[in-house]
């Protein structure tokens, strides 16, 4: 989805980026939410375009303390192949555009739930396995593991990259701005025509309680428009 689909009475909008460590930290919340209500993913392109980054010592030294904090707060696993493999691979480029396109391609072929499965697979490949998730070959392999035929995926990727990706990223950022979100991840509860940002910081590492909270459809933060969860900003200049 490029924009909030308000045809459903209830949904959770997940504004994210595949290369945002805090989004990976919140992945169990996404998985738990999917058991309760529809989840719509909106990729924000944190490291797309001019913000794509070559891996180097500066990047490694910047992200590692944040990643260790995320692991401590959420229980999410950051693998050895990530810390001492990918983050030392100076041939790798962190570019959000290809993985976002891959999520949209799988979503086009197999539906919104499969797109979320693809996003989760991309996050695991990056943060646990230390793989280059901006590379076409990696994305194609992950899609095939989800049962997507190789040529169909390649065609869908080309269409998304040529016709949809820029518009999707722009719409995701517009949604983030419209709801008063400050960065990635931002979770927005839709109730009919009403969109409200949820304060999800308290639920990190507590997916079952988060799911119970969503089932009650109460507890939406009404005193502010932003989430207290630690976040990556929209251009990746701050993450923590």
TrEMBL record:
InterPro entries: DSBA-like_thioredoxin_dom, Thioredoxin-like_sf. Residues 69-193 form the DSBA-like thioredoxin domain. Gene3D superfamilies: Glutaredoxin (3.40.30.10). It holds the Pfam family DSBA. Coiled coil: none annotated. GO terms for molecular function: oxidoreductase activity. SUPFAM superfamilies: Thioredoxin-like. PANTHER family: DSBA FAMILY PROTEIN, GLUTATHIONE S-TRANSFERASE KAPPA. This is DSBA-like thioredoxin domain-containing protein. It comes from Herbaspirillum frisingense.
């Amino acid at each position: 989805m490029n924009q909030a689909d308000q045809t459903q009475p209830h949904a959770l909008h997940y504004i994210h980026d595949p290369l945002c460590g805090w989004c990976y930290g919140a992945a169990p919340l996404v998985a738990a939410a999917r058991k309760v209500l529809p989840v719509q993913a909106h990729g924000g392109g944190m490291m797309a375009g001019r913000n794509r980054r070559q891996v180097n010592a500066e990047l490694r030294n910047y992200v590692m303390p944040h990643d260790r904090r995320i692991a401590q707060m959420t229980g999410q696993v950051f693998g050895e192949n990530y810390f001492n493999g990918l983050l030392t691979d100076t041939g790798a480029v962190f570019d959000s555009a290809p993985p976002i396109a891959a999520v949209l391609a799988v979503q086009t072929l197999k539906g919104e739930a499969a797109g979320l499965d693809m996003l989760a697979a991309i996050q695991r490949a990056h943060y646990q396995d230390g793989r280059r998730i901006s590379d076409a070959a990696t994305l194609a392999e992950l899609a095939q593991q989800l049962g997507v035929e190789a040529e169909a995926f390649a065609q869908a990727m080309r269409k998304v990259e040529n016709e949809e990706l820029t518009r999707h990223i722009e719409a995701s950022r517009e949604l983030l701005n419209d709801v008063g979100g400050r960065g990635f991840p931002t979770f927005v509860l839709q109730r009919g025509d009403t969109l409200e940002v949820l304060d999800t910081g308290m639920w990190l590492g507590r997916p079952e309680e988060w799911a119970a909270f969503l089932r009650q459809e109460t507890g939406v933060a009404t005193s502010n428009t932003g989430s207290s969860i630690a976040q990556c900003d929209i251009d990746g200049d701050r993450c923590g």
